[in-house]
Design brief:
Two copies of one chain form a homodimer. Chain A has two domains: about 180 residues, Aspartate Aminotransferase, domain 1, CATH 3.90.1150; about 260 residues, Aspartate Aminotransferase, domain 2, CATH 3.40.640.10. In chain A, about 40% of the residues lie in helices and about 10% in strands. Chain A is built from 15 helices and twelve strands. In chain A, helix 6 packs across helix 11 and helix 14 packs across helix 15. Chain A is globular. At the A-B interface, helix 1, helix 2, helix 3, helix 4 and helix 5 of A face helix 1, helix 2, helix 3, helix 4 and helix 5 of B.
C-alpha cells in the first residue's frame, strides 16, 4: 500500500519490447520498407498464388511462446509477402489506385505509436483538432464550402451510409412536422446505373434492399439522365413511396463518368431530397483549377465524399466525408452515455475557459464511437508535398491517360469505350471482323495475358454490355515509361 | 510509343520521397517513438489544453510548398504532441485501455508501406488469408468455436451493426417463409440497461431509434435479468412488434458486469432470435482458463465481438467479429458489381486449380467494400508475445485490480460499487455522514483532482445513480507501483 518514489513512476517492466529493442526492430522494418521501395521491379504486381496457400503455410493456432522481431519480420518476408498484391507498384492500374506515398507510412507509424483514440474531443484533442484542420485544408484546396463539417471515415461505403442515415433523419423530421410518420418500408433513393455498389449497399444496410436504390439510366457519356431521375421520383411518389436522397457521382467507378450535378441539385431542391455526391476517386482532381468544371454544383450538395486514399497518395484508410448538415447526423446518431458525459463537450478545462463550443465530438456524428488518428497521415501528406506538387502529379496522371487515349484512338484495332476526363482509360481490342462475343472473349484473354506478365495489373468493367479493359493511372510513381510499356504489351499480346 | 528497355521499368521518379530519404526519415521517426516509449513519465497523461488551441496554431489552408520530413516531425512534436492524450501511459486508466504494444507499431508501418486493400481475395490474398488465420487463432485461444467465420472491423460499434443487419435479414427470411413481410417499422431488439451505447446506435442507424432497443433491467451485479427479458419479448410480441435480436454483454462498459448468457441463449432459441455477444473489452480474458466460466454459453451465440485493440495490446483499430451464420451477412450485403466480378471468387488461378472455394471475399460480408490490412498487427502481436505471455499480463492486470479492490474494501472511507471480475475497479470515496449528493460531488472533485496531477487519467460512470470512479487497468506497462501510487493519490486527495 506504500507508494513508490516518484522517479520510478512510468518505468517500464519487461512486459513489452524494451525501447531499445523497439528501436533496433524499427530500424530493420524501415530498412525493409526502403529496400522494398527501391526495387519494385523485383515484385510481380499480382502474385502467382492459389487460394488457401498462405493458410496452409501457417499453424492452426497462435504460438504459445513469443518470437523475436527479427524472426517475425523474416517470416513476413518469407511467408506473407509472396501473397501481397503490390498496390504501390507503378504498374498497378486496376480498380482505382490506392497509392499511399512514403510520408504516409511515417504518419501511420506515429499514429500507431501514440495510439490515440478519438471518442470525444477530451479523449484526444490532437486527433479531433487535426481532423478538423486537415479536412478544412482539403475543402479549401478543392474549392468546396469551407463551412462544411468534415470528418474522416475508413471507406466511402461507410461515409455514404452516414449520408443516407442523415437523409432519412431529415425526411423523418419533415414527416413529423406535417404530423405524419416516415414509413421505413417505403423509403427509396436514387443514383445512376453507373454508381458505385456502396449506394445500393447503404439501402441494403437499412433493410430496404438494393432494389430500393433506383438506378437511373445514363447517357452515352455514362452520366445520369436528369429526365429519368425526375420521372422516377414522380413515379415513386405517386406509388406512395418516400424518396429520401439522390447520390450523384463525379467520376464513376467503371468509366469516371460525371453526373450533371447542377441539374440534379435542382431536382433535389425541388423535391426536398438530400443530395449526396460521391467523388471518392475523382474528387482529388478538384485541386486542379482546370478540372473544377467537373465539380460544378457540388457546393449545393448536402454531403460529399472524397477518398484521399485513392488519388491523393494517402494510405488506406482515409475517406473524407463532408456535410452541410451535421445536425442531421447528430440527431440520428448522437447518444452520450454517462461514462462519457462530463468529459464530452463539457471538458473541465473547456468549462472553466468558456471555450466549450469549439470542442468537436466526432462520436456524435458517426456510428463508430472510437476512431483512429487518421488525420495525421492526411496532414503528413499535405505537408510533405504541398498542393503544388500534388497538383503536378495529378496533372501528369491526366496527361498520361490522355496520351494513352490518343494512342488507342489512332490504333486501327483498338478503341476507346468512354471519355477520358480524369486518369482512367477504358479501352478494348477490336479485331477486324470479330463479333461482339468474340471481341469480349479476346479482351478477357488479353487482360489475363497482361496480368500474367506480372508487370501490370489491370481490371475490367462492362460498359453497355461490352467487356472493357480499364487502365487506372494513379500511383505516385507511375511515369510515361510505364504507360508506354503497357501500350506495347497490350498491342503485342492482343496479336497472339 | 516506343517501350522503354525493361530494366528501367519500375524505376522511380522524384515524385515521392526517395527510398534513401524515406530510410533517413523513417529512422528518425523510429527514434522519436523509442524515446517516447523510454520516458512516458515526461508526459502528462491528459494534456492541459483548451478546445481550439491546436486549430489556432495551424494555418487555415494546406501549404502550397512541401516541407522536409525533419520539419514535419519537428512540428508534430512541437505543435501536435502537446495535444495528445497518452493512451499508452501506464497511468491511463480511463474508459478501457486501448493499449497498443510496440510490435503492433511495426506491423502498422509495414501495413501502411505495402498498403494492400482487401476488396476480394484476389485484391490481396495475403490480407484475406492472414485475416482468416489470425481470427481463427484468436477463436482457438479463447475457446470459441473454430468453425465460426471471423473478420476484422474498425470498431465494435460497426461489428454490432453488422450483427443487427444479419439478425434482421434472418427475421425477414423467416417472415417470407411464412408468407409475410418483415415490417421495418416494428423491429425491436433487446439488451441490458448496462449495455454499450453502440447497441442503441445500431437501432438508430436502422432508423428505429434508440427506443427500439429495449434496455432490460439488471440485478445487483449489473447483469441482465432473464425474467425481464422474457417479459419484454412477450409484451412486444403481443403488441405486434417484431423482435429480431438480443445483445448480451460479457464485461459491460460501466462495471464489467456479465449477463447470464446461458439463460439468454435459451430465451433467444425459444423465441428464434439472433444472439449477439458483446465481449469487446472482456473477451481477451477468455484466453485465461480460470476466466472461461464468464463465457459460458457464448458458444451458442450467432455472433460475438471482441476488440484486441482494447485488452489484447493491438493498436486501434482491430475489432474481431465472429458469426456462426455468415450466410445471413452475405444475403444482406453481398453485391458483386461487374468490375469486381471475374476476379471475385473466380480468380483466374483459382479457376484453373479448382481451389475457388477457399477464397474468402470479405467484401461480401461487410458494408465497407475496401479494408485495411489490419490482420498484420494481430499476427505481429500474437507472434511477438505468444499466448503464454499475453496470459501472464492479463492475469497480472486481474491481480492488480483485485489488490486495489482489497485496499478499497479495507479502507473505512472508500467503498466498492461493483464486483471486480476482470481488471476494472468501480469505487467511490464515502465521507462519513455525507449525503448521496454530497458524496457524488466529492467524488467528482476527487476524479478531477487525480486527473489534474497528470499522473493518471480516470473516468467515471453512474451505477444506480451513484457517481462512480472507474479504475480501468489494461495497459501493458501498468505495474503494481502505478496502482499503489494511484491508491495513495486517491486517499490523499480525497482528504482535502
Amino acid at each position: 500500500m506504500k507508494a513508490p518514489p516518484a522517479e520510478t513512476l512510468g518505468a517500464f517492466t519487461d512486459n513489452d519490447l524494451s525501447p531499445e529493442d523497439f528501436r533496433r526492430a524499427g530500424h530493420a522494418v524501415v530498412d525493409w520498407i526502403a529496400d522494398y521501395y527501391a526495387h519494385p521491379e523485383r515484385q510481380r504486381v499480382l502474385p502467382d498464388v492459389l487460394p488457401g496457400q498462405l493458410v496452409d503455410k501457417l499453424p492452426s493456432g497462435a504460438p504459445q511462446q513469443g518470437a523475436a522481431q527479427e524472426e517475425i519480420l523474416a517470416d513476413f518476408e518469407r511467408l506473407v509477402a509472396p501473397h501481397l498484391v503490390h498496390w504501390n507498384h507503378p504498374g498497378f492500374m486496376a480498380y482505382f489506385a490506392a497509392g499511399g506515398s512514403r510520408p504516409g507510412v511515417l504518419a501511420e507509424a506515429l499514429s500507431a505509436a501514440v495510439n490515440n483514440v478519438g471518442l470525444l474531443w477530451y479523449s484526444s484533442p490532437a486527433l479531433a483538432e487535426l481532423e478538423e484542420v486537415t479536412t478544412r485544408w482539403l475543402a479549401v484546396a478543392m474549392g468546396l464550402p469551407v463551412e462544411w463539417f468534415g470528418m474522416i471515415h475508413d471507406s466511402a461505403s461507410i461515409a455514404t451510409l452516414h449520408a443516407v442515415i442523415a437523409a432519412r433523419e431529415l425526411a423523418a423530421a419533415k414527416a413529423r412536422e406535417s404530423g405524419a410518420e416516415l414509413d421505413l418500408n417505403r423509403i427509396v433513393m436514387y443514383t445512376s446505373e453507373q454508381a458505385h455498389s456502396s449506394v445500393e449497399k447503404a439501402m441494403s444496410a437499412l433493410g430496404r434492399g438494393a432494389e430500393a436504390c433506383r438506378k437511373i439510366r445514363c447517357d452515352d457519356r455514362y452520366a445520369m439522365r436528369p429526365g429519368g431521375l425526375e420521372r422516377a421520383i414522380a413515379r415513386d411518389r405517386s406509388a406512395g413511396l418516400s424518396p429520401i436522397a439522390i447520390t450523384a457521382t463525379v467520376g464513376t467507378t467503371a468509366s469516371t463518368g460525371v453526373d450533371p450535378v447542377p441539374e440534379i441539385a435542382d431536382i433535389a431542391a425541388e423535391n426536398g431530397l438530400w443530395l449526396h455526391v460521391d467523388a471518392a476517386y475523382a474528387g482529388a482532381a478538384a485541386i486542379l483549377p482546370e478540372m473544377r468544371r467537373h465539380f460544378a454544383g457540388c457546393e449545393r450538395a448536402d454531403s460529399f465524399v472524397i477518398n484521399p486514399h485513392k488519388w491523393l497518395f494517402v494510405q488506406m484508410d482515409c475517406s473524407v466525408f463532408y456535410t452541410a448538415r451535421p445536425e442531421c447526423l447528430r440527431s440520428a446518431l448522437s447518444l452520450t452515455p454517462e461514462y462519457l458525459r462530463s468529459s464530452t463537450s463539457r471538458a473541465p478545462q473547456a468549462q472553466r475557459s468558456g471555450q466549450d463550443a469549439r470542442a468537436v465530438n466526432y462520436m456524435e456524428h458517426s456510428i463508430a464511437l472510437g476512431r483512429r488518428f487518421r488525420a495525421l497521415k492526411l496532414w503528413f501528406v499535405l505537408r510533405s508535398f504541398g498542393t503544388e506538387h500534388l497538383s503536378k502529379v495529378l496533372r501528369e496522371h491526366v496527361r498520361l491517360a490522355r496520351l494513352l487515349a490518343d494512342w488507342v484512338a489512332e490504333a486501327p484495332d483498338f478503341e476507346l469505350l468512354a471519355p477520358v476526363d480524369f486518369s482512367l482509360v477504358c479501352l478494348r481490342y477490336r479485331p477486324t471482323g470479330a463479333s461482339e462475343a468474340e471481341t469480349d472473349a479476346a479482351n478477357e484473354r488479353l487482360l489475363r495475358a497482361v496480368n500474367a506478365t506480372g508487370e501490370f495489373f489491370l481490371s475490367h468493367a462492362k460498359l453497355e454490355g461490352r467487356y472493357t479493359i480499364r487502365v487506372a493511372i494513379g500511383n505516385i510513381s507511375t511515369t510515361e515509361a510505364h504507360v508506354s510499356r503497357l501500350w506495347e504489351l497490350l498491342r503485342s499480346l492482343a496479336d497472339r
